[in-house]
Amino acid sequence: MATYQRVTLLLYILIMCRGEAFAQKLLDTANTLQQRAYGSIVHLSYPQNIEWMPDGEHYIQVEQNDKAQKEIVTYSVKDESRTILIPANQLMVDKTSKNQIEPWEYSFSKDIEKVLFFTNTKKVWRYHTRGDYWVLDRKSGELHQLGKGLPESSLMFAKFSPDASKVAYVSRNNIYVEDLQTKTYHPLTIDGNDTIVNGTFDWVYEEEFDCRDGFRWSGDGKYIAYWQSNTSGTGWFDIINNVDSIYPTVQHFPYPKAGTTNSAVRIGYVSANGGSTTWLPIPGDERNNYLPRMEFVPGTNQLFIQQMDRPQHTNKVWTATIGKQDLKIIFEDSDIAWVETNDHVRWLRGNKYFTWMSEQDGWRHLYRISADGQQISLITKGNFDVIQQVGLDEKSGYVYFIASPDNATQRYLYRAKLFGNGKCELVSDANQKGQHSYNMSPTCTWAVHTFSNASTVPQTEMLSFPSGKTARVMVDNSKAQQEFDELGIHPKEFVKVKSGELMLDAWMIKPYNFDASKKYPVIIDVYGEPASSTVQDVWAGSTWHQYLASLGYIIVSIDNRGAAAPRGREWRKCIYGEVGTFASEDQAQGILDLARQYSFIDTERIGITGWSGGGSQTLNCMFRYPKVFKTGIAVAFVADQRLYDTIYQERYMNTPQNNPQGYKNGSPINWANGLEGNLLLIHGTGDDNVHYQNCEMLVNKLIKEDKMFYQVSYPMRSHSISEGEGTTRHLRKTMENFWLKFLPAGGR
Question: What are the angstrom distances between the C-alpha of 282 and each of 307, 323, 411?
Answer without folding.
Answer: 9, 15, 39
